[in-house]
Predict the 3D structure of the following.
Amino acid sequence: MKAPISWLKDFVDIDLSISELAHLVTMAGMEVEEIRVIGLPMPETGSTSARVTGLAWDPNKIVAAAITEVMPHPNADRLTLCRLFDGQGERIVLTGAPNLFEYKGKGVLPVPLKVAYAKEGSVIYDGHQEGYVLTTLKRTKIRGVESDSMVCSEKELGISDEHESIMFLEPDVIPGTPLVDILGDAVLDLNLLPSYARCASMLGLAREIAAMTGKKLKLPTLPLTPQNGKAEFASIEITDPNLNPRFVLGLIRDIEIKPSPFKIQHRLKLAGMRPINNIVDATNYTMLEIGEPLHAFDYDVLKKRAGNKPVKIITRSAKDGETLITLDGVERKLDSGTILVCDEAGPLSIAGVMGGMESEVNENTRSVLLEGASWNMIHIRRTTRAQNLPSEASFRFTRGVHPAMAEKGVKRGLELMAAWAGGKIDPLLFDNYPLPPSAAEVEITPQDVKRSLGIDLSIEKIAEYLKQLEFSVKISGNTVKAIAPDHRLDIGEGTTGKADLVEEIARIYGYDNIPETRISDLLPIQRSNLRLVKEERTRDLLVSLGLQEVISYRWTTPEREGRRLPPGSEVDDKPYFRIANPLAYEKAFLRHSVLTSLLDTAERNSRRYPRLAFFEIGPVFLQSEDPSGLPDEQNRLAILLAGQRNLQGWQPADTGTMDFYDLKGILTSLLNGLNLDHAKFNAAKHPTFHPGKCAVITVEGQQIGVVGEIHPKVREAYDWGDTFKYPILAADLDMDLLIKLIPDLTKTADVPAFPAVVEDLALVLDETIPADRAVELIQQTGGKLLSSVRLFDVFRSEQLGAGKVSLAYRLTYQAMDRTLTDNEVSTLRNKIIKRLEYELGAKLRS
Amino acid sequence: MTEPKVLEELEQVKNAALAELENVKDETELLTWRNTYLGKTSAVMKAFSSLGTLVPDQRPLVGQGANRVKTMLEAALTEKTNLLKESAMAHSLASQSLDVTLPGRVIPRGRLHPDTQILRELYRIFGDMGFQVYHSREVESDEYNFQLLNFPVGHPARDMQDTYFIDAPNRGDNPLLMRTHTSPGQIRAMREFSALNPSDPPPVRIIVPGMVYRYEQTDQRHETQFDQLEGLAVGERIRFSDLKGTLTEMARRLFGPNARTRFRASYFPFTEPSAEFDIQCFQCDGKGCGVCGGGWLEIGGSGMVHPNVLRNGGYDPTRYSGFAFGFGVQRIAMLKYGINDIRYFWDNDLRFLEQF
Ligand SMILES: [Zn+2]
């Protein structure tokens, strides 16, 4: 909402500076986003974070002037020369304003035209450029005529966008008066939150300012006529009071449609509305002034539609598919969520949102039927959104306007119409008020305030604050009984009402004045969040192993994720959770796989980096059996590795390419770091991975995930540029399961006190036997005295023969309680060799 | 009694040996010297072996003399050996010097995502004040995201949070959606804790981190997916002044001991009184600059938990009160690290991530 400060001053005295006022209002919950200066000196920003825009008018250079004659330009038809008096002397000023043409060549004007005159050196906006660009007036020659000053349009002064016509001032201004003394102002542009509907008017805002500054609110007095009642000129039928709690009609006859007075038009413009004519302006002015949106019907059109019958207004829900041509000329298709104002011939307007074309006030209108009503805010909101028709009226109705305002609005609107358009107001209103809201009544004590805010306020102070906001207040004993005023619907009852009042009290007291304290309440029982601890431990381990953590968008497309499955293999036919209103198709599906997020990330970075090493821990979104319909947000860990093992330096270091065993090594170290020592890697088939380079990982008998080299066909589905030729290695793990398996407690072995015996064992085996199998047998046979087995060499050769492989192990024998004898070790060694020979056909290599 | 002749000869050998030792240059020459003067055929060793041929009363005299010469020569040898070793070391060191300005070998280093880093800092700060991390889901129902938080169906406050809805048939007024804030975690946590002892529910002090989603166009300052941190304290003596104290404490821990906060009246359906909280700009100390505008940085929303929300969580609002707050984690990270574009966070460009 845009609030000119001069207008606020109709209702409250303001002696704060512009930025102080903006700060005060902002701190009380009505954020001032912009201060637009109209001519006044630019304010200091101070502590407001509001944008300051607009233009200061130099009082010596921009003044009121009187045009006494408009003469043709000797060389240009579209220009005129004005003879004007600027308070000091006569000037000839060049202009192309079309609204002076009618005076051209008419000689000395009987009544001079008062205009805004900018002298040489004035800084104003350039009226002929897009947007607001400052320019300084300089002496030039236009078509042979000297020009150093100008009569200004509203745009040039920063008042409105009007840039062709010049602005006329009121006839009684005295030439030479600085323009800032006549029109100087500042407009606060407020971002009003939904609960601040009561402040969506000059009066509403002034009320808050009065309460906060301790000034008296100057309430407008309403005229004595018309009086409330059941007038004869029309009747009202409300079909559903829940949709339409109140409907008030007033009538004014014999009006004359014409422009509103200068001051009214000026105010409307500053408040962001376009002046139309005196009747429409009266409805808008009333809405801006006191907050009740009004609608004016051409009464004669309604009478014609009614034929010989009396005019009857009916409010009801629209029928599905019903149509109405609104005053913007658009034929609107309506549904049953829309509330209509109708007569017996059909729809007249969309209630609270927009009027219909047919019954709209126009230049021939002589009598006006004025509607002030109250509507169900949820329906108005739905209609506004469905029809995409945000307006000043719907802004207020969607936030809730108290039905009491309907009557006040109609009375004020008629009063303004009579003042600006003449005419006679019918002495009676027609008021149909089937559903008056009950006024919220709340009891509050100083203890309530202390309990919630932590401050001590006397009962008198509480009563005073509420009274300033027009609550009616009674103190009895230790309790303030407050009744909400009839302009607000945001006060509840019971505990909610108490909270509502506490907020009002806090706002007037000032949030700044509430102290900062430490929580003195009981400290809750502290529980360890083991899930988090284990997840963070996993992250730390992966980082220590040289991996970069990434975090991806949760959305994807089935096509993008589908690339992880090569053509011809299985497809992911699990349904996706799909966003109904995505920004783009690419952001419409919640991912099934974290691994694909990493493949996307690798693809994007592969052009610049010869080594990629990432991990991500995050959710995927899978259908679940849960009756809530909510997805199973399974937490996954994915790792991706590709490219050079080391970053290339200047020495001939190892720049080999990473392979399966690099990733397996990382996983082994990770699991080891998580105290999961007995992980098994078993060859497996998975469509995403190379058929010969893929394993499932089993921990404590449970499969935690899969690891391998990405299948060449999957790799081909991504764009790796021309330089990144490396195989892609990846792992996809069930993080929830992993966390379950990580032990909370671990045991540490003693450091041996006796020397160990170390010896090497080289075996020749069939290639088909997994290396793991040999280790298992060695460990089983070696038992407790064999403390470690480490593979240190693998080779194949012609001498060994086809299909044979040599595996060399280093065995460490160790007892905790003694030094092992040669005899013990050799017995053990022989047992191991025999077992390997017997079970695996192994031969000892000499 | 005359000195035996052999002693005189030894004396001459000794002098010759010492003189020759002076000129020894390396270990080979030293070995030769040693063989010459201390070897089996050397004059000294011969003197020992010839003791038996001497008359008995000369034996001790010659033995002692030979011994003296031997000891002297051995000492000289040791000294020379050390001297040679040291000079060899000095020579070798001189020849081995490196260009220390050449770059070191690059060891690939892993890094935590900046979001994780900032979250951990927040966990620590709030952990020290007794707030525990509570995990809550990302896809929510309308009921948890809105209705139980006091946003009735059709309420205009819903316009404050543009929502991504999930395609799911037949859900009426309870559609599925991407949570627009971490606040559903308030309800889920309160319900979980109050269920432990419904007639006397325990106090709550939690933070709920996690991704939230808003339907809006992205730019440098706006993301459609971002991380939020929710805070909730519920107990029998929780006050607005505690909320101010807690968030000021956070500001001090994040931005230094002089950090100041400011609370502005605001509106959120699930808190009342509600407040936006700002932190005084640390770039300009509140004087106003390009980062902040008017000297204050808008951080998040906060307030006293609305009685309806307490009730929906199983806490009787006449007995319990609470405060809640929420803010964007990226906003904090951007301020702390001077990040100019919020879209960097989930884009996973290594050129960004490598800087942390
Ligand atoms: Zn600043």
